[in-house]
Write a structure and sequence with these properties.
The protein is an alpha/beta fold. The chain folds into two domains: 1-111; 126-375, Rossmann fold, CATH 3.40.50. 39% of the residues lie in helices and 18% in strands. It is built from nine helices and 14 strands. α2 (149-156) packs across α9 and α5 packs across α7.
């Protein structure tokens, strides 16, 4: 007759401990077998009771569980060690980048003396001409009003224009000062300059280059902006991927913002001094060390402008560079194609991003003057 132990589970006797152990009962050979997921224990009826076999089974499983737990612990510890090593590498890279940027910035600062406002030489705003039409010039990323010096003078010499070249907040300032500048500060500074010009001029036009062109477009999109028209020179509608392998520039910036969270500064990839293509004697110096906040302002401005081309209501003259490695010329052209306001779009061959420094700036300035004059009739 089969023997059923009170702790066994043969389908009729439930396992009180719910461990899934089964007892097959006594076989013709006098053996009873306990089985679990991991172990099988067989007993004979010759003096070894099933309870002893069941206890052996439990103890065996506990040993197996202990060994499995130890293996899991070792695996988790190895994973934790890897995480700690990666964290240490990240912290060391952050520290080294911060030291490197600090040393490079220190050497850069030794090359000039800042004024009481913290401005480096050659970045002050200026005004030329006293004509009836005001033209406000807005420089771009890491640049200064000096880039427009030749164009503003040529336009003012016609006698019809008052040219004001403004300095955007953060431009020419220390990294610490520039890191506090937000997109709203740039917009407020531009609107403030427009307000000053409108006191003495019936019409105010905006001429912007690169990021400055995008800022000018943002204000021109506002019906209350007080702008008669806008001239956009290589507007920053989208950053070109020519300098950005594999991933879009915006993604690289987000990754860099995490990877170098201590320093939060990049050294500019542009040349220290920009030299005019047609006149080696005309040079400008841009900002060398750019805080992450400046890049964030650029990408925020791009996102804000992207869907709004059809909203522009003032006349626009746009000039794009066929060899631009900073702005995505195709994206800028598509955006301008969506503008329904009166306008002219020129794609200039064989020139790069900084149009005021390129050959042909004279003809471009004259065309701008002609376009504004026609629209002001």
């Amino acid at each position: 007759m089969p023997m059923h132990h009170p702790l066994a589970n043969d389908g009729q006797h439930p396992d009180p401990f719910h461990w899934g152990k089964t007892y097959d009962g006594t076989q013709p050979n006098g053996r009873g077998t306990y089985r679990s997921q991991n172990r099988t224990v067989t007993s004979r009826d010759n003096g070894q009771c099933p309870s002893v076999c069941y206890c052996r089974l439990i103890l065996g499983n506990l040993r197996l569980d202990r060994f499995a737990g130890k293996a899991r612990l070792e695996k988790n510890m190895a994973f934790l060690r890897t995480l700690l090593q990666l964290l240490a590498c990240w912290l060391i890279a952050n520290a080294l980048h911060r030291i490197w940027i600090g040393l490079r910035a220190w050497r850069w600062e030794k090359g000039f003396v800042r004024d009481a406002q913290g401005l480096r030489p050659g970045v002050l705003p200026y005004t030329v001409g006293d004509g009836p039409i005001a033209v406000l010039w807005v420089h771009g990323f890491a640049d200064s009003p000096a880039i427009f010096r030749r164009m503003t003078q040529r336009l003012a010499d016609t006698g019809r224009f008052t040219c004001r070249a403004m300095r955007l907040p953060g431009a020419g300032e220390t990294v610490r000062q520039a890191s506090r500048v937000m997109l709203a500060d740039l917009d407020a500074a531009l609107r403030g300059e427009i307000g000053e010009l409108r006191r003495d001029h019936a019409q105010v036009w905006l001429v912007g280059h690169s990021m400055g062109a995008s800022l000018a477009l943002q204000v021109a999109l506002d019906p209350a902006g007080g702008v008669a028209g806008v001239v956009a020179l290589t507007p920053m509608i989208r950053v070109s991927r020519r300098r950005s392998p594999v991933l879009p520039p915006a993604i690289w910036f987000r990754l860099a913002n995490i990877a170098f969270c201590w320093s939060r500064t990049f050294e500019s990839c542009f040349a220290r001094n920009a030299i005019a293509a047609d006149d080696p004697g005309f040079t400008t110096t841009g900002d060398r060390f750019i805080p992450f906040n400046t890049y964030r302002n650029v990408f925020s401005l791009i996102d804000a402008l992207a869907p709004r081309a059809a909203e522009l209501r003032v006349p626009i003259f746009a000039a794009l560079a066929a060899e631009d490695r900073v702005v995505d010329t195709s994206a800028a052209q598509r955006w301008l194609d969506g503008v329904t306001a009166p306008g002219v779009v020129r794609i200039l061959p064989d020139v790069a991003h900084a149009l005021p420094m390129e050959t042909g700036w004279q003809a471009l300035t004259d065309e701008i003057a002609g376009f504004i004059a026609v629209q002001c009739r």
